Amino acid sequence: QVQLAESGGGLVQPGGSLRLSCAVSGTIWRTFVMGWYRQGPGKQREFVAAITSGGTTDYADSVKGRFTISRDSAENTVYLQMDSLKPEDTAVYYCNGDMLRGPPGMWATGDYWGQGTQVTVSA
User: Fold this and answer.
1) 114 contacts: CB under 8 Å, gap ≥ 6
2) Of 16, 64, 99, 111, whose CB neighbour count within 10 A is largest?
3) pLDDT tens-digit profile of 13-43?
């Protein structure tokens, strides 16, 4: 059984930074593609970033150059470093485990989800 738990959300001003963490239980997750999704107010859930077990990363165009996904197997944690935050980044951010790669630039969600962490970008 794989369990995910996000933390690190909060209120930040535009241009600020936050680092989200996703603590993962067990060891099988180390073979998974891990990623982050978000759902803003009144919006559908959308892909944010993914990282393979080998460390290859992929990002949504809207966050490319501002967000960085990483993983630490020793710490059993996946991170999302978010810089230059914008009001449109406001959303609940979810960690997702065991994602599947689709056509280039597309991903299918995996079976494992955390409870989400709220990020609010506002002056």
Assistant:
1) 4, 5, 6, 22, 94, 95, 96
2) 99
3) 999 999 999 999 988 888 899 999 999 999 9
Q: Where are the beta strands (DSSP E) in 32-110?
A: 34-39, 46-51, 57-59, 67-72, 77-82, 91-97, 100-101, 107-108
| Gap between the Cα atoms of 62 and 87, Å rounded | 12
Q: 84: closest CA among 52, 121, 113, 53?
A: 121
Return the ∠ at Cα 111 (arms to 61 and 29), rounded to 5°: 85
pLDDT band at 12 (very low <50, low <70, confident <90, very high): very high
Bridge-based pairing of strands 67-72 and 10-12 is unpaired
CA distance 16 to 26: 33
